[in-house]
Amino acid sequence: IMNDTMRVMWFVSESDPVRSSWKNVEWRGPKSVHLTSPTTRRPSSVLPYWDVTAPNFLLPDQSASFYFCKIYKIPQLDTKHHITGFTPWLEKDHEGLIEHMVLYSCLGGDEFEAYLSHPGTGCRDPQKPPEWKSCTTPIVTWAAGSNGEHFPDHVGLPISEGEGKATYFMLEIHYDNPALQRVRDNSGLRIYYT
């Protein structure tokens, strides 16, 4: 194994395959991975960041699984910048309540300005503003157990590049609350950019 991109084959089967029977397995495919490289690195302490968090959100005690959504606006950037990574911002003692978080970019413009003061709502709530349905492109995804992701020095996701670039984003947090705890949460994501 070298410190380089390695090509691996994966497959899933209900039983151990016999010699060449792996070719008939339905769930299989190739993947390029760095087997010896760490998946994350620490961000530079000088990089600016943007926090998108649940604003003191009170978890409902009627459902073990709840999806919370809230609209955010990217910080004012006059020139092209790049997202270079992210880390979870998990409130102490709430780590076990959060299954995953996704930051979506929203299509549209100034119509989202009115929702910046909105406290957020259930993502599946029929009363959710209809404009929020245009927030469908995942920009950042995090799942329980991950420390986040920081891109290599030469990689970044362009943001604030002018006309047509996303300015508004929607944070989705999936809470898994089987004990139906009624707690307030401020968890979310810290987005690093150049």
Automatic annotation (TrEMBL):
It comes from the Eukaryota. One of its GO terms (molecular function) is copper ion binding. Residues 50-181 form the Copper type II ascorbate-dependent monooxygenase N-terminal domain. Pfam families: Cu2_monooxygen. InterPro entries: Cu2_ascorb_mOase_N, Cu2_ascorb_mOase_N_sf, DBH-like, PHM/PNGase_F_dom_sf. This is Copper type II ascorbate-dependent monooxygenase N-terminal domain-containing protein. One of its GO terms (cellular component) is secretory granule membrane. It comes from Lygus hesperus (Western plant bug). The lineage of its organism: Eukaryota, Metazoa, Ecdysozoa, Arthropoda, Hexapoda. One of its GO terms (biological process) is norepinephrine biosynthetic process.
